[in-house]
Amino acid sequence: MSDIDKTAYDVLVDKISRRGVEVEKVKQRLKTQRIETPSWGYADSGTRFGPYKQAGSAVTIQEKIADAAQVHKFTGIAPTVAVHVLWDFPNGLADCETLAEYAGSLGISIGAVNPNVFQDRDYAFGSITNENPAVRKRAVDHMIDSIEIAKKLGSNVLSLWFADGTDYPGQGDFRRRKHYAEECLATVYKAMPAEMRMLIEYKPFEPAFYHTDFADWGMSYCFATKLGPNAHVLVDLGHHFNGQNIEHIVAFLIDEGRLGGFHFNNHKYADDDLTAGSINPYELFLIYNEIVKAEEEWIDPARPTNPPIAFMIDQAHVTKAKIDAMIQTVMQIQTAYAKAMLVDRKKLYEAQLAQDVVTAEMCLQEAFLTDVEPLLRRVREEMGLAPNPLEAFRASGYWEKVSKERGIRSGAGLGA
Ligand code: AFD
Ligand code: MN
Ligand code: MN
Question: How many domains would you assign to the chain?
Answer without folding.
Answer: 1
